[in-house]
Design a protein that fits this description.
The chain has 263 residues and is α+β, with helices and mostly antiparallel strands. 46% of the residues lie in helices and 18% in strands. The strands form 2 sheets. Strands 5-4-3-8-7-6 form a 6-stranded antiparallel sheet, sandwiched between helices.
Length: 263
């Protein structure tokens, strides 16, 4: 720890609670953080006073509090990207059995910014702020589009990559080839690569400079596959991505550049 020690310890507590599936006790938090129980209790008391953690009255264990949710809503509510994407993801989810996602890349993993549940029998178990693998998801592959092979391997490592599902590509070089092949088409796929029995299709989002800064994807069970063509889903996802990118200024910037070159 190189910054403010108390702040970093407080953030470490919040990170543990964020990853936990259920409330966590003081001793368990202390064990995970390699801190003393009294020190962790003092941190929890401070966080509880501000509403960032709350204690279950029955178990006396701790979970994230309402202030975290309020903070997240404030950030997401002001985020133009999320606002534009939510409209499109809701429309995609309404089309059929498509669970829809918005994500960005941070280092060697992706982070969900938005998830939209459809009427699909497959239930979304991911929430904004949670991470996802780049190599096994259509969303992650879309975020890696147009990067050089060296850059992709630099991000993911030389492998073998984690075998997430039955058809996960674990060889980074094969993954790079797969991403390269998707670029002329405009969308990426994940076929039994992140979850067995699940198909996903993703497309990148661009800012005004044309840089890929986020991606969207939809996922649906193979059971609806006979009635849904991947290419058709890809067209729908790319169209939604194009509208979001236009809202971020990409289309206007591109037209301005084209007009400048023409002159």
């Amino acid at each position: 720890m190189t910054g403010n020690l108390s702040l970093e310890r407080g953030l470490a507590v919040l990170n543990v609670l964020k990853e936990a599936d259920e409330a966590v006790g003081v001793r368990e938090l202390a064990r995970r953080l390699e801190q003393s129980a009294p020190a962790v209790q003092r941190i929890l008391n401070t966080l509880a006073e501000q509403g960032y953690v709350e204690q279950s009255p029955d178990s006396r264990r701790y979970r994230l509090g309402h202030s975290v949710l309020a903070l997240a809503r404030k950030v997401l509510g002001r985020d133009r990207l999320v606002g534009l994407a939510e409209i499109e993801l809701q429309a995609l989810a309404a089309e059929g059995c498509f669970n829809a996602f918005l994500g960005i890349r941070r280092g060697n993993c992706g982070i969900y910014l938005l998830t939209v549940q459809s009427k699909s029998p497959v239930v979304i178990r991911s929430s904004p702020g949670e991470t996802f693998p780049l190599h096994s998801t259509a969303l992650g592959k879309a975020l890696l589009m147009e990067l050089s092979g060296e850059a992709v391997i630099g991000i993911l490592g030389r492998g073998p990559l984690e075998q997430v599902a039955v058809r996960t590509v674990t060889d980074p070089h094969k993954l790079v080839a797969q991403i390269r092949a998707s670029e002329p088409i405009g969308y990426t796929t994940s076929l039994d690569e992140n979850f067995t029995g699940l198909i996903a299709v993703g497309a990148p989002l661009r800012d005004a400079s044309g840089t890929i800064m986020a991606a969207i994807s939809v996922a649906y069970p193979r059971s609806v596959g006979p009635h849904v063509e991947i290419a058709e889903v890809g067209e729908s996802v790319m169209a939604a991505a194009a509208r979001i990118s236009a809202g971020l200024g990409f289309l206007e910037a591109k037209q301005a550049r084209d007009s400048h070159h023409a002159a």
